[in-house]
Amino acid sequence: MDDCIFCKIVKSEIPSRKIYEDENILAFHDAAPQAPVHFLVIPKRHIRNIMELEQEDISLAGNLLNQAQKLAAELGCAEKGARFVINCKSDGGQTVDHLHIHVLGGRFLGWPPG
Ligand code: 5GP
Ligand code: ZN
Questions:
Q1: Does the bond joining 15 to the residue before it have cis omega, within 30 degrees of 0?
Q2: What sign does the dihedral 12-16-21-23 (CA atoms) show?
Q3: 61 Cα to the center of ligand 2, angstroms
Q4: 114 domain-assigned
Q5: Do the beta carbons of residue 100 and residue 6 sit within 8 Å?
Q6: Is the pTM of this model over 0.85?
Q7: Is any atom of ligand 1 closer than 6 Å to the C-beta of 114?
């Protein structure tokens, strides 16, 4: 998608602090961190949100979760845990329409969200 911020990050047209990259997945630090650890894990392919995942994306979805979990551990969240969040569309508070998993950690996070 030409006007998608995260597609531009994938293509390095917008700079980001990358943490992990493979053929299908990119992880990078959030530009406005809400916790000491706050990074995003995204598919490189433009998928608008979790509602648009298809049956054939099951292995991609599993790999996104797997990377989110591994990187959370590498960034120091193994012992105390973290929050893994996928916002979806307007009621879910999604502001960038390219599927992403937020991983937040390094501090206690209250529940429920506002
Ligand atoms: P959403 O609200 O869609 O779930 O989350 C979008 C996230 O993307 C926000 O946490 C926001 O700070 C982050 N974000 C938006 N634009 C950029 C950017 O250009 N670079 C990075 N690294 N993060 C961004
Ligand atoms: Zn995109």
A1: no
A2: negative
A3: 16
A4: no
A5: yes
A6: yes
A7: no
CATH label of the domain that carries residue 30: 3.30.428.10
> What are 14-37's pLDDT values in tens digits?
999 999 999 999 999 999 999 999
What is the chain's length?
Answer: 114
Question: What are the C-alpha distances in Å from 25 to residues 36, 99, 104?
Answer: 23, 11, 18
Categorize the per-residue pLDDT at 1 as very low, low, confident or very high, splitting at 50, 70 and 90.
confident
Ligand 2 center from residue 108 Cα (angstroms): 31
With H, G, I as helix, E, B as strand and everything else as coil, classify residue 113: coil
With respect to residue 111, please indicate whether it lies within any of the assigned structural domains. Answer: no
Print the domain residue range for 91: 5-105
User: For the stretch 36-61, what's the b/e string if a residue is b when 16 or more beta carbons lie within 10 angstroms of its beta carbon?
Assistant: ebbbbbbbbebbbbbeebeeebeebb
- Per the domain annotation, does 112 fall within a domain? no
